[in-house]
Amino acid sequence: MARWSPPVLEVTYPVERDLHLAGRGLLLVPSYFCWRKPITLFDGALLPVLVYPVEKPVQPPAPASDASLARLLGPTRAALLYEVALRGCATTSELALAVGCSLPNTCQQLAILREAGLAACRKEGRCVLHHPTPLGCRLLETAGAGPAGGPLPMPRPATVSP
Q1: Spatial separation of the C-alpha atoms in residues 27 and 40, rounded to whole Å
Q2: Beta strand pairing status for 90-91 and 49-53?
Q3: Which residues lie below 8 Å from residue 76, measured CB to CB, with a gap of 6+?
Q4: Is residue 99 within 8 Å of 109, Cβ to Cβ?
């Protein structure tokens, strides 16, 4: 979401914009209610503010509900949906590594989740970033994987090497 390239702080932002601080500081404010992208608050008389989203941890489903979610979606898609919700936003490569699947299989499974309205994606530069939809989050919450104190390891789908 943010990268420091001295002397510039580059932040993913909905529009192309430069904010020159002119020697003033920048107040960074984490927000649970800021969704996916940071926002800036700027008034020439006040200190510039960058409000950014904090991670909203997702607890994996309990074993019984994990089994029912895996039966509904399939173990790979269930694991991918969980990882997408856990991370909030992730590249295809990050998700493939997280669930232990090949990149082509991950792409195919994510396409199925997108078609079902459980995940969405956007292209940024050379990367495709995947994020959960409200429907995908509700499905995980119903299965017992809603927000909680911290993420726990989730059983990964079995993979078969040729």
Answers
A1: 10
A2: unpaired
A3: 99, 101, 105, 109, 157
A4: no
CB 130 within 8 A of CB 119: yes
CB of 47 closer than 8 Å to CB of 25: yes
pLDDT-derived band of residue 56, with 50, 70 and 90 as boundaries?
A: low
Tokens of 142: 């119903």
Q: d(Cα 83, Cα 148) in Å, to the nearest integer?
A: 15
Span 86-108, pLDDT tens digits:
888 899 999 998 888 888 999 99
3-class secondary structure per residue, 12-69: CCCCCCCCCCCCCCCEEEEECCCCCCCEEECCCCCCCEEEEECCCCECCCCHHHHHHH
Could you tell me whether strands 27-31 and 49-53 are parallel, antiparallel, or unpaired per DSSP bridges?
A: parallel
To which residue do tokens 């059983």 refer?
155
Tell me: the pLDDT tens digits for 112-138? 999 999 999 998 888 889 999 999 988
Count the Cβ atoms, other than its own, within 10 Å of residue 139.
Answer: 21
Query: Distances in Å between the alpha carbon of 93 and those of 19, 30, 75, 84, 102?
Result: 32, 27, 18, 12, 9
